[in-house]
């Protein structure tokens, strides 16, 4: 990674002119830029920090603190090692950012414990800031035993932040009883303390207790953050009327309040309620727009997804982010709106959005092009990704399968098996579907049989459904029936109907008899088809109604008939 543009001229002037050797102030100006460039940081710290012995610890601390707040917290430990190797002593300012760096790296739990030991050996556990950083670290690691040990051994220096951190730590780990015990023992509580307990009960689903705690809060502590928390949790648990009641009762609302209520409507599929609130909110940010756009996409209202996105574009002060564009691409894919999808692709490139991060923007692009029939572009996007995660592989494999290109689908599948990413349940559905449509029976059998043995994926109903389809299309009905009755789980409606549709009329009686004997149908007025769609019911009625009355109950026979007529 190249050094940032501002750093190169500054560093060049200081080195050429020799100013960097004259005062530590010049190093102070450079240090904030160093965490992204560990080699440069190591060189400068080893060459120039020792030139200023009285400031060496301070300069190392600056580098540790800058690294702790950067995307590269590992550099903190290199800076700490450099400090010790150079013979300088850490002070009480050294440890809080060092501990923070450890807490940001889940694999550094052992390193965090070693830093704790260093702080203890050097006598810094008498410093409240050091203690609080250790409490937060163990809470982040979900190590409540070590957190409790630090808290109890350093009780004399604990402040309200210490107590709150322990309450938060227990709550985060689901230890509500311990969180409440510490809360009840607190000598002084503030709004954060109350919010921690309210949030703990709400997150655990104990909303009645959360509301009781909220009502008991001193008015001075019941701030907009706590109100937002209650609205969010009520909505998250599907209690929209209560969430809306809390929202309406809020004495002061901020943008987060509006977004929380809108998100609550979206999470519960109430898009009309969300839109009503969205249209009257006093100000909107990218979160507001993205929440609505994503909600429409998730609800299958793809035309409205694109319509709202166009409206968002007319507000030039708000730029869509990766999450927004994933939803837009999903809508384009489902509508096979290639021109809109191409425009979205140009927008993504123009704003240099990253395709291969946790937002799976690359996979969304692949899926869009594939669903629009442009597997060439889908393949091109796939090969352009530096990091190909399972979503990207699945998008291409599924796209090729959906376009009937079974051979290329299988080729990509074989490449995936040799990569770092391993096939999952979605991958196998796509590959088996491709085999079924192409009549590749032997390959389909092989892939199905290798799911658990070679890839550790246990076949589910959807995989058995693909195999029934594959065997049925090939006319291997006996094998299909043998497979369905040999499954480790009961077949669902779709599988049984698929088998009935594939078989000859005179064999339906045997299949129904077998299903009856195994307890899959004929259980009363609400048999296994009572809540299924009419398409499958119409197929099933042709097979069932002519069957003997002892094979299916009269109530079910009447229900199915009425259902089809409706």
Automatic annotation (TrEMBL):
Stretches forming PPR repeats: 159-193, 223-253, 254-288, 389-423, 424-459
One Pfam family matching this protein: PPR_2
Keywords of the record: Repeat, Transit peptide
Gene Ontology annotations of biological process type: RNA modification
Molecular function in Gene Ontology: RNA binding
Keyword Transit peptide: yes
InterPro entries for the chain: PPR_At4g14850-like_plant (IPR046960), PPR_rpt (IPR002885), TPR-like_helical_dom_sf (IPR011990)
Keyword Methyltransferase in annotation: no
UniProt-listed PANTHER family: PENTATRICOPEPTIDE REPEAT-CONTAINING PROTEIN
Protein name (database record): Pentatricopeptide repeat-containing protein
Organism for this UniProt entry: Miscanthus lutarioriparius
